[in-house]
Amino acid sequence: DIENEIRKRLTEAKNFAKLKGNVPKGMEIIFDKLLKFKLNWKAILRKTISSNIPFDFSYKYPSRKSIAVGTYLPTTIKDKKLECVCVVDLSGSITKEEMREFMTEVYNIVKSFKNVRMWLITHDYDPQDFFEIKNGCLNKLLGIKLHGGGGTAHSTWLPQYLKEKAELRNVKLIICFTDGYSDIEELKEEDFVGKQLIWV
Predict the structure, then answer these.
(1) Which residues of 145-156 are buried (b: 16+ CB within 10 A; e: fewer)?
(2) Which residues, in sequence order, are bridge partners of residue 100?
(3) Of 82, 177, 183, 190, which is the most exposed, with the fewest CB atoms less than 10 Å away?
(4) Inter-residue contact 107 to 118 (CB < 8 Å)
(5) Per DSSP, what are the bridge partners of residue 127?
(6) How far apart are CA 161 and CA 159, in angstroms?
(7) What's the rounded Cα separation, in Å, for the pair 109 and 141?
(8) What is the spatial distance between Cα 166 and Cα 177, in angstroms, rounded to a whole number?
(9) Which residue from 167, 177, 182, 170 is spatially nearest to 198, judged by alpha carbons?
């Protein structure tokens, strides 16, 4: 909270000085470094996935936590699966480091969440590879040869692809890994009704 308050005051001071034309030379760079927010995207991604996993309650067995306080509360049943698709940008602008980071994160999601059914789509200008990633075939994921290397696009194929692929009809969460050099702003919200779209 204190850090946010300091950032807020710095932003106000910077804007005030800019309006008056009193920003000293070189201070613009210092302001940019100070005001740049760093988000832990991996933590945000995990929190989003966790909150999207469907669950239900059952009174068949009491919750273990409630027994200690002498109350009978229902247990949480998490046997339903979250249908999810990871769309990984493998265009020419993606470095090997970025590709490794994207694929490591996909690997970690599948390994960490047993209640997630996940498909992987790799693409450049068009979709390249499509397959389901299962917990048992994680080694296959590490050894697979991925295709790409061309230009980047999302709007020309992604909405249509999600509608046409029978396996993806129940997908609730779409995670797009990209460097941002794409036509993201051309995608329409109505193409993703009932689905949550996350950009990493």
Answers:
(1) eeebeeebbbee
(2) none
(3) 190
(4) no
(5) 123
(6) 6
(7) 13
(8) 22
(9) 177
Query: Token pair for residue 50?
Result: 């966790």
Distance between CA atoms of residues 10 and 54, nearest Å: 42
Integer CA distances (angstroms), 13 to 10, 20, 27, 31, 98, in order: 5, 11, 12, 10, 36
Residue with tokens 């100070």: 34
Q: How does pLDDT run across 71-126, given as a tens digit for each residue?
A: 888 877 766 788 999 999 998 888 888 888 888 888 888 888 888 889 999 999 99
CB of 112 within 8 A of CB of 187?
no
Reading the block at residue 26, the tokens are 């070189």
Question: Please, are residues 47 and 137 in contact by the beta-carbon 8 Å criterion?
Answer: no
pLDDT tens-place string over residues 21-44: 777 767 767 766 666 666 677 888
